[in-house]
Design brief:
By secondary structure, the chain is mainly α. It is built from twelve helices and no strands.
C-alpha cells in the first residue's frame, strides 16, 4: 500500500487546524486573551471545512446526546458554580481543554467511520499519542514514593516540565498520568497480543509483520513501564478490570460472569455500611497523610 492509500486531505486539514488551536487552548496564560477566540475560530473552521468536503457536520453516534449535554449544559453549570478566584485560575483553562477535546472527538469519529484505512490511521495516532505522553509525562510528574527502593529510580528522572501547566506548579499528579494512559493501554495490549499471535500462526512471516509486532511491543513496554512507575492503585485496578473484561467478553459464560460480578458489586455497595465504604475510599490516602502528620 502506498502513502496515497492512507492519505486523506479532509482529515489532514482538520488535524492541522486542531494542531494550530491546541497551544492556544492548552496554554492560554502564555498568550494574549484574544487568542482564545482565534482558537475557537480555527476549530469552527474545521467543521465548515468538513461540511464543504463531505457534506456532513459530524458522524452520528450513540454518544451524541451525552457529549453535547456535557458541553452545552454541564460545562456552563460547572463554570457558573465555581467560586470566582478558582474559576479564572482553574475552571476556565480546563474548560478550554475540554472544548478542544470535544472537537478532536468528532474529528476522529467522523473520519474513522469513513473507511478501513482511516480507521487504522486513527488507531495508530491514538497509540502514538499515548506513547508520546508516556515518554514526556515523566519529565513533569510530581512523583510519589509508595514503595521502598523506588526512589532510587525516580530521583534520577529529570523534571524540566514541572510548572508548565497552570495549577500544576509542583508537577502532574501520578494518578492523572495513569488515568490518561489507561485509555490507551488496554487497546495497545490487545493489538500487541494479536500481532504476536498472528506471527505465531503465520506460515510465512513478512518483514512488515515483524516490524509491526516489535513496534507494538516497544510501545507496550514504554507505556506499561511508566504506568507502573506512577504506582497508582486505582490505575492498576482499572487495567486489571479492563483486561479481564476484554478476555471474558469473548465467551458466553464470561459475559454471564461479568454480569453476575457487576450485580454482586452493586449489591455490596448498597448493603455495606457507608462508614465502611468511606474507609475503603480513604485507604489509599492513609499512608501519605500519616507521613505528613509525622
Amino acid at each position: 500500500m502506498t502513502l496515497r492509500h492512507w492519505w486523506d486531505t479532509t482529515f489532514a486539514g482538520e488535524l492541522l487546524l486542531l494542531a494550530m488551536a491546541a497551544p492556544l487552548l492548552y496554554f492560554p496564560a502564555r498568550f494574549p486573551s484574544w487568542t482564545v477566540y482565534v482558537a475557537i475560530g480555527l476549530l469552527s473552521a474545521g467543521w465548515i471545512w468538513r461540511r464543504r468536503r463531505l457534506g456532513i457536520w459530524f458522524q452520528r453516534t450513540p454518544a451524541d446526546w451525552p457529549v453535547f449535554f456535557l458541553l452545552l449544559v454541564m460545562l456552563p453549570v460547572s463554570l457558573w458554580a465555581a467560586p470566582e478566584p478558582l474559576r479564572n485560575q482553574y475552571s476556565i483553562p480546563k474548560a478550554y481543554i475540554l472544548i478542544w477535546n470535544f472537537f478532536l472527538f468528532w474529528t476522529i469519529v467522523t473520519h474513522a467511520s469513513r473507511s478501513w484505512a482511516l480507521d487504522w490511521v486513527a488507531i495508530a495516532g491514538f497509540i502514538a499519542a499515548g506513547t508520546l505522553i508516556a515518554l514526556v509525562a515523566p519529565l513533569g510528574i510530581d512523583w510519589l514514593y509508595k514503595y521502598p527502593g523506588i526512589d532510587a529510580v525516580l530521583s534520577r528522572v529529570p523534571s524540566p516540565l514541572v510548572g508548565v501547566f497552570r495549577g500544576a506548579d509542583s508537577g502532574f499528579h501520578p494518578n492523572q498520568v495513569a488515568g490518561t494512559l489507561l485509555y490507551v493501554l488496554p487497546l495497545l495490549l490487545a493489538l500487541t497480543a494479536a500481532s504476536i499471535y498472528r506471527l505465531h500462526r503465520a506460515r510465512v512471516r513478512h518483514k512488515r509483520d515483524w516490524a509491526l509486532a516489535l513496534l507494538l511491543v516497544a510501545c507496550s513496554v514504554v507505556m506499561g513501564g511508566v504506568f507502573l512507575l506512577t504506582q497508582s492503585r486505582s490505575g492498576l485496578a482499572g487495567i486489571t478490570a479492563g483486561v479481564m473484561v476484554m478476555i471474558l467478553v469473548n465467551w458466553r459464560w464470561g459475559r454471564w460472569a461479568l454480569l453476575a460480578g457487576s450485580a454482586a458489586l452493586l449489591a455490596t455497595m448498597f448493603i455495606m455500611p457507608s462508614t465502611m465504604l468511606q474507609l475503603i475510599a480513604d485507604a489509599h490516602r492513609w499512608k501519605p497523610r500519616a507521613a505528613v502528620e509525622r
